[in-house]
Amino acid sequence: MAELVKLSINGREIQAEKGALLIEVARRNGIEVPAFCYHEDYSLQAACRMCLVEIEKTPKLQVGCTTPVAEGMVVHTESDVVKSARKGTLEFLLTNHPLDCPVCDKGGECELQDMVFRYGAGESRFVERKRHVDEKQWSPVVFFDAPRCILCYRCVRACNEGMGVGALGIGNRGMISEIIPNHDDHLECDECGACIDICPVGALTSGSYRYQTRPWEMDHVGTICAHCADGCKTTLGVRVDKIVRGNNRDRSGINNEFLCVKGRYAFDFVDHPERLQSPMVKTANGHEPISWSKAIDIVANKFGVTVLTGGTFGVIGSNHTTNEENFFLAKFAREGLGTKNIDHHRTGDLATLFDALSGKTDALATSADVENAKAVLVIGADLAQQHPFLSFQIRANVRRHNGHVHVVTTGPVREDNQAVSRVRVQKGGELAGVESLRDTLKAEVNLVIVFGDAMQGDALRKLVAFGDSLGIPVKYVCLVDYSNSRGAFDMGVLPTGGGLSLEQMLAADDLDVLWVVGANPLKNAQVASKKAFVVVQDLFMSETARQADIVLPAASAYEKDGTVTNVCGEVQQLKAAAKVMGAKSDLEIFGLLAKEMGLNLGIWLPGKVFEEIRKTVRGYNVPLPVVATGGSAPTMPLNGRVAALPGSIASANDTLFTSGSLSKYSNVLNAVMEAPGKLYRGQGPGAGGQ
Amino acid sequence: MAKRLFNEPSPLETKVLSKRFGLEGSETLDVYLANDGFKAFLKAKEMTPEAIVDEVKASALRGRGGAGFPTGLKWSFVPRTSPKPRVIVVNADESEPGTCKDRLLMEYDPHQMIEGILIAGLAVDAHAAYLYIRGEYRYLIEKMDRAIAEAYQRGYLGDNVAGTGFKFDLYTHSGAGAYECGEETALLDSLEGKRGIPRMKPPFPAVAGAWGLPTLLNNVETFSAIPPIIRDGGAAFAALGTPKNGGTRLVCISGHVNKPGVYELPLGYPMMKAIYEVAGGIPGGRKLKAVVPGGSSCPLLTASECDIPMDYDTLAKIGSMLGSGGMVVLDETADMVKFALRIMRFYQHESCGWCIPCREGTTWLRKILQRFYEGQGRREDISLLGELSKNMLGRTFCALGDAAAMPTISIVEKFTEDFERYLARETVAI
Predict the structure, then answer these.
(1) Residue in chain A lying closest to B355 (CA)
(2) ipTM
(3) Which domains does chain B possess?
(4) Per-residue pLDDT tens digits for A487-501
(5) Which of residues 152-211 of A touch B (CB under 8 A)?
(6) Do residues A616 and A514 both lie within one domain?
C-alpha cells in the first residue's frame, strides 16, 4: 500500500496516494480540473495551461497535471484567480480559432466548446485578423484543419506512444507551429484514426464521417467490431438506419482508447451496393431473386427430404456469426438434421490448447492480462498486423507497467521495438526459438504466451509443457482470426463425435446437402459431390454463393443482437445498429427453417438462446448483467479433456487492412495506400498481401 | 596597439574577466599561458572537489545568464557520486536582446572559459562538456573550434589535461537560431537533436539533464569567472562586489549613449555613473527617459528609478531584474509604443509555440501594438495590453512568456502618456 497523504482541495479534506498527480486526485474526488493536453494514458505535456490551480504558499499558479500531491497541501480550484486564469487561457485559445462551429464535425461534442461554455468569456476582445491555413488531406481517412488545432499534442502522443507508429510530429514554431505528418505531406501509418478520436477539437476529422451529420442527430450504438478476433468495442454513430461513424471516444470497452482502421472505418461494407437483399435461386440463367417464403420453403423441403431419406449433410458454420447463431446452428445440425458433419474454418488450435491445459485453472489470459502481465511472449504472429488491439495492449503494458516483451517470429514485427528479446526463426522453428529463451523467461515473475497457428498439435503440447517447466504462472492466448472464431469453437461448430471436417465434407462424393453459413469455403475449392444441394447464407455473392442452389441474404454483425467471444475468451454483446432491407439475421433464418421443417429447437430470440448457452455450454455461465450492460465477461476454462478433431488449422493471414472476404467490400480499407499490408514487413509468410 | 576591440575600454572598469581582451593574440593559448593561464586549473587539481565548490560559493558568483542563481549552490546540486557520468553544458546561446558579452569572452579569451569548464569538471567529476553556441554566432563556432583544437594540441584538453592525468573532452554544438534554446532545458533538447522546447522541471538538469545524465549547465561568463575565483580566492572576487553579489560582470550598454559597449563593472556599480561616465552620457545632452536594466526581458525603469546600485537584489527590490547584463538606455526621444512593438515582435517570433498563453499571447500583443503604432489604437487597448500581459505572466510553461509580459506591463504602466499621444494624434477607426 502506497503512502497516503492528506490534503485539502476547495476546503475538502482528501486522502490520496503520495505522489499522485493533483489533477487525478481532484477528478477522482469529483472536482473538475479542466485540461486539454492532459491525457491519463500518455506522457505529460503541461502545454495547455488550462489546469492551473492555486496552491497556498506557492507564489504562482501551478499546473495540476504535473504537480504531485503532498502532505498538507491546500489547493483551490475555483478561486477567483484560478477562474480568471482559465478565462484568460481560453481567450488566448480563441484568438486564432476560426469559430466555425456551425460547420465543424466536432460541434456538439467539442471539448473547446464545452470549456468556453463553462469557463470562458461571453465576449471576445480580439479584433485583429485571424491567421488562416488551408485544410489538408493527409490520407483518405484523415483530414487536418490547422486553424482549429489548439496544439495539445494528444494526437502526436497517441500515434507515437499508443500506436507505436509515430506518424505525426510538430513543425515550425511559435504561432505557426503546426501538427504535421512525418512523411512529407501525407500519413504513412496504420490509418487507425486514433488521432481523430483523441483530438479535443475539430482539427482532425475523419474522411468518411466529415460533413455527414451533426453528432446529436445520431444514435450511438456500442457494439463489437465485426472484423478480427480481438473484440474491440466500437460505438457506431447511426443516422436514419445508416452507420456514418465508428469511434471509441467513450473508451467503455476492453480496448480503452484503441480502435484500428477496421473498427473505426470498415463498417462501410454494410451499405455496399453488392449487398444481397433478396434470396436467390440458381436457374439456367444464373441466380434470380425469389421471395423469402419461397426460398425458406425450398430449403426446408430439401432438408426435410434429405433427413427422411437418410441423406448426408455437410454444415459449415461461420467465424463471424454470433454465439447464439453458432449454438443454434450446431443444435440444428445435430438435433434437427441428425448429422455430425459440422465444422468451420479453424484458425487456431484451441482444441489442443484446452486439452493440454485440462485440470489447470487460470491459464487463459484475458486482454487485460496482456496489459498487466510482467512479461509477454509472442510466438509466430505479427500482432500489429493481425491483432492490433493485443499489440496495443503490449505497448500499454510496457508504457504503464514496464512489462518485458519477448518475440519469436519469422520476421521483424512492431513488438520488436518494445521487446527485450527478439528471436528470428525459420517457419517451423518457433519451438526451438522459444526454448532458447528458457533462462530469460524463468527469471520473469509471470508470463502471458500469445501464439499463432504455428503452434498446433504436438508443438503446442510441447509449448504448454515448456510453460509448465518455467516454474512461474503462465497464461495463454491462442490467436484465432475473426470476430467470433472463438465462439464458433466454443459453441461446438465442430465435427466432434466422428463427423466430417470441413475439407472432408468438400471432398465427400456422396454429400446430399451442403449448408454454408457465413463462410467462403469454395473460394479456391469445389464440392466433390455432384448431387450436393448447396445452401449459402451470406452478405455478398461470394465465390461459394455463386455455386449455391439457394442463396439467403444474411444480416451482418452490425445489424443484429447477440454475443460474440473474442480471442481471449471474453464474451461481449453485439447490438444492432443498422438495418439492411431484405437481409435477415442468420438466427432468424435458422428459426424460420426450423419452423418450416416442424422442428422444435426452442425460441430463436438471441436473449433466449444466450440463456440456454449460459446453462449448457461449459465455461459460459457468465454474469448476465456484465454482458447486458456492454461489459466483457471472461469464459471459464474448460478444465477437462477435449477430444482431438479431424481437419486442418490455418490462419488466413489477414493483415491490418484485410478481413477475409469482408474487406473486399469496404471502400475505406481498399482506399488507403497501405492496403493490403504486409506481415513481418514483407519477409515472412503472407508477404506481399493476399 | 593595433588591436581593434569591440569598444574602447573605460578607465572606470574593473578588469578581471576582460583583463586580457586588449592583448595582441589574446585568443591564443600562448598569450593566455603567459598571463596567468591555467594557474587556476593546476591549483584546483590540488583541491578537493568540495573545496572548489566552497570557493565558488565564497565568491558569491551568481549565474550570468540572467536568472542570477548562486553558482556554487548549483554546482553542489550535481550528484558527484551518481553511477551515471556527469556532463557539463555551456550555454553560449546568447540571444537576449541588448546582450553581447559572451561573444567577446569567446572571441577574445576562449581559453579562460575552457579553463573554467575544466575546473567545473574537477568539481563535479565530469569529463565532457558541450559548448552550445547560438546558430547566428557561426564565426564564433569557428573561433572556438580553433581554440579547442589548440588546447587539444597542446595538451590542455584530451586524455591528460596539463599533464595532470585528468581526462576531459570539449565539443562545440551549433544552435539553429532559436532564442528559446537559451532556456536551459530547451537547450538540452536541442543539443540532443530534438525540437527545442523546454522540459518539465523537476527533474532539474543537475539530476537529469543532457541524455538524462546529471548535468552542470552555466553561462559562458559564469565559467569565465571561475579561473580568477580559484586563482585569487573566492573571497577576493566577492569583495569586488556587494554582499551576495560577488565580483564583476560584463555590462553591455547600448542605446542612446555616446560610448556604447561592453564594460566590466563590479556588482553594485551605480547605474547613473555607468550611463553618464562609463558610457559617456546621452548624446546631445538629452534627458534620460528609461533604462532596460538587463536585457529586453526585464521590466523597464523610468529615469527616476535609475539612481541605484546595479546588483541582483536591488533590482529585484524595485521590481525589475539585473538579467543578462544587457542595458539599453532610452532618452526622451524614444517612442515607447514603438519600443514595445519592437520587443514584442521579437518575442512573438521567438515563442516556441509549446504553450498556449505564450504562443497566442505574444501574437495578440504584437498585433495590438502594431495597430496602435499604425495609428489605429483604441483607448481600451491600453488596458487590454496590460491585462493580456498579466494573463501570460506566471502562467506559461517557461520564462519566455514572462519575458514578453514583464517589459510590456512596465511600459504600459510607466509610459502610458506615450500611448495617449498616439490616441490624440489619430482619429480611431477600425
Answers:
(1) A47
(2) 0.93
(3) 29-240 (3.40.50.11540), 336-425 (1.20.1440.230)
(4) 999 999 999 999 999
(5) 170, 172-177
(6) yes
